[in-house]
Amino acid sequence: MALKKKPSEPWPTITGEYEVGNPENPVAVCTCGSHIKAADLLAAGASLVGPCKTENIGIEKMVANIISNPNIRYILITGMEVKGHITGQAVLSFTQNGIDKEGRIIGAKGAIPFIQNLTPESIERFKSQVEPIFMIDSEDAGSIMSKVKELASKDPGALDVEPMTIEIKEGGGEEDTGGLKPMAAEVVEVRGRMRGINAAVTNSGLLNKLQAGIYAGKIEGIALGMTVVLVLFGLILKVAGGV
Q1: 18-56 confidence digits (pLDDT tens)
Q2: Is-contact 35 81, C-beta < 8 A?
Q3: What are phi and psi of 21, to 5 degrees?
Q4: Which of 162, 200, 228, 230 is the 20 to 30 A CA-CA neighbour of 181?
Q5: How far apart (Å, rounded) are the C-alpha atoms in residues 89 and 134?
Q6: Residue 202 Cα distances to 26, 118, 146, 199, 207, angstroms
């Protein structure tokens, strides 16, 4: 029988949008931006199932919950990518390339791939503890469940270490090391649209003013023309009367 160890108390250590099964099961499933029915995956051998929507604090929470349970030996990354964050690709880059001296995930394509709460020791623990399996952009519940069963059947037992707990401070999770706060792609897009709407409203207002000015000019021109005609007509009548 595979060696099992008691995870941290409580476990998971970090709250989040996930469902928990048997903590002795060897597979954690990250569904990126998708919400895939967790019950079948938990029954198939997963201990933790849930989305990971950001390539900074989301990955940090995932790592924290995994290294606090040495029984988890596989992390299955599946589901659809989150627009702008591209979390699955960020996890792939994180596991393959790590982070640079500024905390940026090397090779990650998302908007804010900065790791701030993970120590070098916690990153090394994650890499040594779990084998990442990638099924990115798949929402096929049957295929995902089959993969969970396959991995569970190969359970090597718990890593022979004590659970590692780390603190995740969410307040600075999206701060850039240079002091600027990069915006997620969705925010950039929304703000871009807002600027476009504001510009359109401004242009519409200017156009309305122009049209109103033209209309007013026409009215004034007509009134002035009528005045001149009446004056000339009056003069003509006066001259004709004098004759």
Answers
A1: 999 999 999 999 999 998 999 999 999 999 999 999 999
A2: no
A3: -115, -145
A4: 200
A5: 9
A6: 59, 47, 57, 5, 9
> What's the pTM value of the predicted model, to 2 decimals?
0.69
Q: Which pLDDT score is estimated for 171?
A: 54
Looking from the CA of 77 toward its CB, the CA atoms found within 13 Å total 26
Query: Do 106 and 93 meet the contact criterion of CB atoms below 8 Å apart?
Result: yes
Which residue has tokens 């209309």?
215
- Could you give the CA distance from residue 186 to residue 56 in angstroms, rounded to a whole number? 16
The pair of structure tokens assigned to 56 is 């900074």
Which positions ≥6 away from 232 have C-beta within 8 Å?
none
144-181 per-residue burial string, b: 16 or more CB within 10 A, e: under 16: bbebbeebbeebeebbeeebbbbebeeeebbbeeeeee
Detail the DSSP E strand segments found in 64-153: 74-79, 131-136
| Below-50 pLDDT ranges, the chain | 172-188
